[in-house]
Amino acid sequence: MVKLVVWQMFNLSGDKQMKKSLVALAVLGSFAGAASAANSVTLYGRVDVGYQKFSHEFDNDGFNQSGNGETRLGIKGEEDLGNGLAATFQLEGRFDGDTGSKTEKDDGSQLAFFDRESTVGLKGSFGHVRFGRSVAAMDKALDRYVVGERVATLWDPYASSTRHSNTMFYDFASGGFDGGFHVSTKGGAVGDTTEGKDGEKIGYGVFAGYTVAGFTVSAAYQADKAQFARPNLTQNISAIGEFAADKEWGVGMSYQYNPVKFSVTYAEAKSRQQNSSYKAKLKTWTTALSADVTANDNVYVKYMEKRFSDNYSASLQKEKGRYFGLGYSHALSKRTSVYADVGRYDVKQTVGRATYKNDGTAFDIALRHNF
What we know:
By secondary structure, the protein is mostly beta strands.
């Protein structure tokens, strides 16, 4: 009926602008019809735009206005199927708030439209089963302890792939306990979108966490089955940011005694190279202390250390990276806040008898609105 009325009005009108408006109304009407078919559909996201500057060899972007994928848009919904069972879906992508364009990868290509989440599933008393693309086990276990924004999160507290495609995810929560696992088809575990990829192995992971009386502890094991080519470390090449994990495990804990919260994490990843005896290892430590100095103001201090080593007999390689950070955020409302971070990075590489050093500072200041 909506399409018929619009078509009749479209023929009667000779105004081009009116025609465009009517077409737009028809499109909106079709979306409204789709939304009403589900029990609940929620549009959500955040807009985050700020200034940031890196002044060291590994990420010398200069002074720029960068969204850096901090701006996000998502839609999720749930349909009651009866008997305690519900169907779910979630789509979430990111783009740069300063330009409105899709966020680019390090190689210059653009990320997929819904790169953060693209799942459909069923949930009930048994838990939540989803299929598609979402965060993996190591992120589920250790991301809950991350503090800071932008320059403070240049390095992750682990080395495994953050998100897996072509994957089944299972999550369960009861009381203070939460846990789950994921299993990927060949190729999905290492960030590819082509499943059943020759030469790749099935990836999987498992995580669990427990919270009681302000104390939280969690752990995860993840096997990405990724291959990692031996890096030739130099002053401009770093392994700690490009490490591809074959398998990794990690643990984390935090304790909150209002208004102060202390957290610490440790992760250890190993790599492999097909048909080779080459092996490499990456260890990551993080610790942070944050405090709510007022109802609207939070400050934090953070330290992170990453250590890379390999067994290449011709020239042993080692790399150590450290980050010291300080940050502040102020809530203007429940949805809007301003924040700033400042950090100090230093990296030391040892290749045989040669030594390379890089250090620098970084800072950011930004405005964020959640909706």
